[in-house]
Amino acid sequence: MSATRYTYLGPEGTFTEAALRTLPEAATRELVPMVSVPAALDAVRNGEAAAALVPIENSVEGGVTATLDELASGEPLMIYREVLLPIAFALLVRPGTALSDIKTVTGHPVAQPQVRNWLRKHLPEAVWESAASNADGARLVREGRFDAAFAGEFAAATYGLEALVKEIHDAENAETRFVLVGRPARPAAPTGADKTSVVLWLGDDHPGALLELLQEFAVRGVNLMLIQSRPTGAGIGNYCFAVDAEGHISDRRVGEALMGLKRICPQVRFLGSYPRAGASRADVRPLRRGTSDEEFTAASDWLARAQDGRA
After folding, report:
1. Are strands 104-107 and 127-130 parallel, antiparallel or unpaired?
2. Could you count the other beta carbons within 10 Å of the beta carbon of residue 190?
3. What residues contact 302, with CB distance under 8 A and at least 6 apart?
4. Closest CA to 216 of 268, 256, 249
5. Which of 199, 210, 212 lies closest to 268, judged by CA?
């Protein structure tokens, strides 16, 4: 395995590359762009890279399905950290192109919902066609296949383009969350402001089946930060659920919730416990009575004494 190589969703000039370069260790790693999320993750699975950075969630569009599906299937991988990156697009064109010249535009599918209103107002007749990434859209503009691409302004120099319009976003403060993914190992020690990610499968479809899963978290005071259904491929109505929960697997309330889920789900895939981006201990939601590690320990001790006749 190459311990010094990190892959990411390429080509050069993507928001994923920009997010990866915010990590201190990126300065000492070989950063290798890949053509797709599956390709970036497969490089980790087959030992060509130590880790991969891929997008997993956008504050406007929601979960990035390619990443969620890859993490739910195939050889297991683990999330080790996350990065939040503010997102604003620039309209990249070949030099000399005017707004009135633009008939075709491109960008990553996740970008379209973030610029839809701007397009409707300024380029109502332009035809959109998706690209593998925003930077790949810029490459296609350079090659003359499209008139304009929505990408990061920083990609313009890489592809010999210019930013005709800057700071385009329908939603203020839009962000994309990226995750650094490696092969499974022991999670890092808890920081007090952590997140745990899992994928859960329902045993069978019946009234209250999803509620049963959610109750395992609720009764232990574990807050959910994301839950998204994804088809399993086994037919209409068959779903698994990607879940992000506050806390670390070593927290008693989180660990017991996962044990409860393992009892009732035919499959549980642990994707990691890792620090929440931009969070500190002060940001952690106050625990309700009966859900702290100390209270779980006290209850466990009480049960042991009761079993010994000492309660």
Report:
1. parallel
2. 17
3. 311
4. 256
5. 199
Q: How many helices (H) and strands (E) does the chain have?
A: 9, 15
pLDDT for the residue 308: 84
Q: Looking at this protein, which amino acid is placed at residue 210?
A: L
Q: Tell me which residue has tokens 């045993």.
A: 203
Mean pLDDT, each 10-residue run in order, the chain (311 residues): 85 94 94 95 96 93 90 95 94 97 94 92 96 93 97 94 94 91 95 96 83 92 93 78 95 94 94 89 63 81 84 66
Give the separation between CA 80 and CA 20, rounded to whole angstroms. 13
> How many Å apart are CA 145 and CA 139, to the nearest integer?
9
d(CA 210, CA 160): 50
Give dist(CA 163, CA 166) in Å, integer: 6
Report the predicted TM-score, pTM, of the whole model to 2 decimal places: 0.85
Give me the helix-helix angle, 37-45 and 65-72, nearest 10°: 30
Q: What tokens does 177 get?
A: 């969350």
Alpha carbons 236 and 247: distance in angstroms, whole number: 33
Question: Residue 204's pLDDT is what?
Answer: 77
Q: Where are the alpha helices (DSSP H) in 147-220?
A: 155-158, 209-218
Q: Are 252 and 297 in contact (CB under 8 A)?
A: yes
So what's the pLDDT on residue 168?
94
**What CA–CA distance (Å, rounded) separates 233 from 60?**
26
Token readout for 215 is 């109750």
pLDDT at 1: 52
**Which amino acid belongs to residue 231?**
P
Residue keyed to tokens 């490089």: 43
Which of 247, 182, 176 minimizes the C-alpha distance to 16? 176
